[in-house]
Amino acid sequence: MRIYNIRTAAACVIGATAISVAVMLNGCAESQKVAAKSGAQLWAENCQRCHNTPSPSTFSHEQWVTIGMHMQTRAQLTEQEKEKIVAFLSQ
Ligand code: HEC
User: Fold this and answer.
1) Which residues form the Cytochrome c domain (predicted)?
2) pTM score
3) For all residues of the chain together, what is the average pLDDT?
4) Which of 13, 16, 39, 45 is most buried when burial is the number of CB atoms within 10 A of its CB?
């Protein structure tokens, strides 16, 4: 009975480890998906939802940096996504 309990506990630990590895791998795949996307893609997907997006030439780099900070919260973007979009808009 004692041995059985230890085995059950071990199985639990292994199971929990497998689940957390799966979650970690999934999170990794998610950020790789973001990494694969260009600034232009992220911009097209995230910035037209609420308004027509002004063209990149409308604002200077400094202005896009500020707008990026404001719109990051509105569009719920990660830091990485925002950086890419701002880089695209500042070209
Ligand atoms: C959840 C809705 C929402 C999303 C998503 C969103 N915006 Fe906005 N945006 C707004 C609102 C509301 C305003 C007007 C009020 C303001 O300026 O804060 C605005 C204003 C702007 C302006 C005008 C600023 C000015 O001074 O004329 C620009 C440029 C802009 N957004 C760019 C973007 C970009 C780039 C993205 C993508 C990263 C984006 N927005 C995503 C809601 C959104």
Assistant:
1) 35-89
2) 0.73
3) 80
4) 39
